[in-house]
Amino acid sequence: MSKKMRLAAFVTAGPGRPGGWRYPGSVPGWLDASYYHNIARTLEDGRFDLAFFPDILSVPDRFGGSTDSQLRYGALGSLRVDPLPVMASMAAVTRHLGIAATVSTSYAQPFSVARTFASLDHLTAGRSAWNIVTSFQESEARNFNLDAQFDRSTRYERADEFLQVAAKLWDSWEDDALVLDEQAPLFADPDRVHRIDHQGQYFTVRGPLNVPRPPQGYPVLIQAGASSKGKDFAAHWSDVIFCSHASKESAQSFYTEIKERAATFGRDPDRIKILPSITPIVAPTAARAKELAAEIFELVPPLGGLSTLAYHLDVDLSTFPLDERLPEVEVPGVEGHYHEVREITERDGLTLRQLGKQYGGRTEGDFIGTAAEVADGLQEWFTDGAADGFTLQVPYQPGGFETFTRQVVPELQKRGLFRTEYEGVTLRENLGLDRPARGEWTTRAGGAA
């Protein structure tokens, strides 16, 4: 098989799941650099493309207006170490693994973000990636000198301009601008380093960047847009799209839609890799895998799961009866998660309490079983046009990564679905993505100058 599956690992710099940290196989080393070094080495041994770090800029208080449920149950925002230093630490103990960190366009400045990722790309020999988020929580806004969050339209307009400025800054050095001619002397050629003089609605930036153009041209750009505006943004800018689906059918629909949107915007659909999230449970027998899934699921407190869902939807779910179904609501937050839980609610007839437990400990039925059975499910999604690969979430860290790498990856390799060795040096090369030429951002921005 010529087309190869791509694999990313969703690594939380904190407990992540409200039940997983309680499982005996979980190791609570979130504040220890060696914890992340071990995960990095495990993923590189498994020939993963990249480690992907989500981030949250507050302890969420969307459930009942309090941080209690997050802190009490160890939900996703209860503890979250800054992913950028973690990313740099992991890169230092690996040679091939790409490292992606989340940075919000709502609470950062283009110059500092462009400089950070250009620096990381040089220091890692071309292995950096930026997961672009716009943020949507009032609790995050209040940590950044704002009384209220930007509305969705403003967030995406600002993000679009943010990406244009960042790309201009990465392009402000021509590829051969750093000369290092000791005899001339000529350190950097002034004629090949350019101010950008950007003046827009949200940003005024003179430039140039004080770091040469990154080895990858631009770091790999990741986005997870699920709303209409988010899908457009992702189809315009993303190299990799992270998403979440409750069924293969919904994944196929999303996959087709994004690829079509990308083509409409003048981009090659094959240059966007769509990697849905999976949370497999792997064991020597199918029966043991189901038992293990049940054991982990039992550890999930329903309110912990609902607290996480309330954060993702940006809806206070404490106002609804726990023993009734989630009603249809308007979602200011992540629409993709709402569509996912609506599908689960209608399909399984779950009450809100049951939905909280399901969401907090969610796994996918196609991916519970032996290594061969999990590989069967991955192969089906991959060959049926639902994914270019997958983003591996695990119910507990670091053991979940170790089990998948040691048991499922060899099965995928045996079937010719996944690499046995890294193909390139940079993350772009390993993902099968071209290095952007200077000015390539104008195509992604729809011809903006």
TrEMBL record:
SUPFAM superfamilies: Bacterial luciferase-like (SSF51679). It is an enzyme of class 1 (oxidoreductase). It comes from the Bacteria. Keywords: Flavoprotein, FMN, Monooxygenase, Oxidoreductase. GO terms for molecular function: oxidoreductase activity. InterPro entries: Diverse_substr_monoxygenases, Luciferase-like_dom, Luciferase-like_sf, NTA_MOA. Residues 19-386 form the Luciferase-like domain. Belongs to the NtaA/SnaA/DszA monooxygenase family. This is LLM class flavin-dependent oxidoreductase.
